[in-house]
Design brief:
Elements lengths: L1 E6 L10 H14 L3 E4 L9 H13 L5 E3 L11 H6 L3 H6 L6 E5 L2 E5 L16 H11 L7 E5 L19 H10 L4 E4 L6 E4 L14 E4 L17 E7 L3 E10 L4 E11 L8 H15 L1
Parallel strand pairs: 1-2, 2-3, 5-6, 6-7, 7-9
Antiparallel strand pairs: 1-10, 4-5, 8-9, 10-11, 11-12
Length: 292
């Protein structure tokens, strides 16, 4: 069983809330995850000071592999010359030199793709063909039981209950490719409201039987939440084994000064349980565990 902590949109700078950030630190150390995924927007305005604060915060989290990816707020918005000449300079200096990464932990391969597009699509982002090829090579030849996870800041699928959101251009192309690579899950942020679902909820896809689990985090430490998470904070805890993905969504509540579980979701990996007698028995046991 792999445990992942998924946080996003820390927004160091004026929107960051210290007391929420400290509660997240306590939560993370108590959880003791195998890896931490932070899906972009470490800063509000991509200044060196904000990046330095974000770096210090990441260093205080548990000493486990950390999967990071830039967000649109991590490139300078109003400093146009810097955005043209070297948009990732401060991100590379403080967070990570690489923008697209492959992280391997026992039982999972996690590919983080930089979805920001400083010159063309500062809001909705982009995923290029060469990044899809990078993912293909990273997942090629993996054992069937190893989890395959993609991380990007921008969303490939809109919230099923909120249709006023545009996804990345060519998102369907990427989803079809990821499905062919047997990707189990996509993790992201950007919208400042969490949702958990399946790519088939919003796009039937070229393969209509094997959707990809979509796990989006809200803003974990700023009060820039939107929709039902307006002025709220959230994160996700994921537990992945050879057969299932279980996602518990947590929200921060001021009256208890802590992150509290608010919903739980379970998916069979690659869309369905094993259809043999043993697989059916295990699926029924998991279901009984979840409902009791």
């Amino acid at each position: 069983m792999i445990t992942l902590l998924h946080i996003s949109d820390l927004h160091f700078g004026p929107p960051y809330h210290d007391h929420v950030g400290e509660s997240l630190q306590i939560f993370a150390h108590q959880l003791a995850p195998h890896a931490i995924v932070a899906s972009g927007d470490f800063t509000q305005r991509a200044t060196p000071e904000q990046f330095a604060a974000a770096r210090a915060y990441l260093d205080r989290l548990p000493t486990v592999p950390k999967v990071v990816t830039p967000g649109n707020h991590d490139i300078p918005l109003y400093r146009a010359l810097e955005r043209v000449r070297d948009p990732y300079r401060h991100y590379r200096e403080h967070i990570l030199p690489e923008l697209d990464t492959v992280t391997r932990i026992p039982g999972a391969t996690i590919v983080a793709l930089n979805s920001t597009a400083p010159m063309r699509a500062t809001v909705n982002g982009r995923i290029h063909r060469w990044q899809i090829e990078l993912a293909r090579k990273a997942f090629a030849g993996l054992p069937e039981e190893e989890a395959r996870i993609v991380v990007a800041h921008h969303h490939f699928a809109p919230p099923p209950d909120w249709d006023r959101v545009e996804v990345m251009p060519k998102a369907k192309r990427a989803l079809d490719a990821f499905t062919s690579f047997k990707v189990d899950m996509i993790m992201g942020g950007h919208l400042h409201r969490a949702y958990v679902g399946n790519s088939l909820d919003v796009y039937s896809g070229a393969d209509r039987e094997h959707g990809i689990v979509i796990v989006q985090s809200g803003t974990s430490t700023s009060r820039r939440g939107r929709a039902r998470e307006r002025e709220k904070n959230s994160l996700n805890v994921l537990r992945v084994d050879e057969r299932t993905i279980r996602v518990t969504h947590y929200m921060y509540f001021d009256d208890v000064k802590d992150f509290v579980p608010t919903s739980r979701h379970m998916f069979f990996r690659r869309g369905r349980p094993a259809l043999d007698a043993q697989g059916q028995a295990e699926a029924e046991a998991i279901f009984r565990e979840d409902v009791t």
